[in-house]
Design goal:
The structure is a single chain. By secondary structure, the protein is α+β, with helices and mostly antiparallel strands. The protein has two domains: 151 residues, Enolase-like, domain 1, CATH 3.30.390.130; 85 residues, Zinc/RING finger domain, C3HC4 (zinc finger) (Herpes Virus-1), CATH 3.30.40. Helix content is 18%, strand content 19%. It contains four helices and twelve strands. A three-stranded antiparallel β-sheet has the order 1-2-3. A three-stranded antiparallel β-sheet has the order 6-7-10, covered by helices on one side. A two-stranded antiparallel sheet has the order 4-5. Helix 1 packs across helix 2 and helix 3 runs parallel beside helix 4. The longest helix has 15 residues. The radius of gyration is 21 Å and the shape is elongated. Bound molecules: nicotinamide-adenine-dinucleotide and zinc ion (ZN) (2 copies). One zinc ion (ZN) binds next to loops. One of its GO terms (molecular function) is zinc ion binding. Pfam families: DTC, zf-C3HC4. Its EC number is 2.3.2.27.
């Protein structure tokens, strides 16, 4: 059974839609190579229909110039989907020009998030962190205030709250810690550190929450699991940054 929707995922209005989705289509065509000839006997991971039958999103995106039967392969990871399904997926996101493979999470282009506006402050001090006795500490302070949700947020036009700000975070001031700091600056610019959603801790919705990049907010104990010592932390956060497309390759650009 395919997943069907009556809402056009391109323009987010009920079909039939009048939008001319030239920009989303060009993103799909940039990263997928259309497969000519018989499609494989596999399911499309987006609509769950066979790749040899039309896209499950054909009814809801009739204004597209992409044919419902068209199957494309992502250029690097080689995973295949209906091109119309990838168009629907892209159009349902924040339309930042990047695509993420739903099978293997490979990122095409530069992924950005929906972090509300705010400020990231950095300072250092000589006291060391448990587990990193040989160096001082980097302190990051994130400032975000409450505001009104934009079109990229779950409830556009509604207010969002910002609890517990400023939030203070700590890194060892050694080579690896400084590298993490530089990558966190990239992630901040790409709006990946926070998002607007529901807090797991408090259950509050329409509030600013950490995204998928963990920070250490406790300096001299680890009672919460968000403190030091934690010998794996720097490697873990490097992996979380990489999963968002933020790697050493992004530095010095
Ligand atoms: P959340 O609870 O939805 O969790 C999102 C991610 O943040 C999870 O991965 C979680 O492991 C991590 N996380 C949870 N608590 C953390 C902490 N203390 N330090 C670092 N990472 C943490 O996210 P959220 O609502 O943004 O974070 C909850 C934390 O934010 C609270 O523990 C608290 O520090 C702060 N907060 C404070 C107030 C306040 O009124 N002072 C209110 C809400 C949240
Ligand atoms: Zn499909
Ligand atoms: Zn893939």
């Amino acid at each position: 059974m395919g997943h069907r929707t009556t809402q056009c995922l391109t323009c987010l209005f009920l079909s039939p839609c009048a939008a001319t989705p030239t920009e989303p289509e060009s993103v799909v065509k940039k990263y997928l190579e259309e497969l000519k000839g018989a499609a494989a006997d596999e399911d499309c991971m987006i609509c769950m229909e066979k790749l040899s039958s039309p896209s499950g999103y054909s009814d809801s995106c009739q204004s597209s110039t992409i044919r419902p039967e068209a199957v494309g392969r992502l250029r690097n990871c080689q995973h295949s989907f209906h091109m119309l399904c990838v168009l629907a997926m892209y159009s349902n996101g924040n339309k930042d020009g990047s695509l993420q493979c739903p099978s293997c999470k490979t990122i095409y282009g530069e992924k950005t998030g929906t972090q509300p506006k705010g400020k990231m402050e950095i300072s250092t001090f000589p006291q060391s962190l448990p587990g990193h006795k040989d160096c001082g500490t980097i302190r990051i302070v994130y400032h975000i205030s409450r505001g009104i949700q934009g079109p990229e947020h779950p409830n556009p036009g509604m207010p969002y709250t910002a609890r517990g700000f400023p939030r203070y975070c700590y890194l060892p001031d050694n080579e690896k810690g400084r590298k993490v700091l530089e990558l966190l600056k990239v992630a901040w610019k790409r709006r990946l550190i926070f998002t607007v959603g529901t807090s797991n801790t408090t259950g509050e919705s329409n509030t600013v929450v950490w995204n998928e990049i963990h920070h250490k907010t406790e300096m001299d104990s680890n009672l919460s699991g968000h403190g030091y010592p934690d010998p794996n932390y720097l490697d873990n956060v490097l992996a979380e940054l990489a999963a968002q497309g933020v790697t050493e390759d992004c530095l010095g650009q």
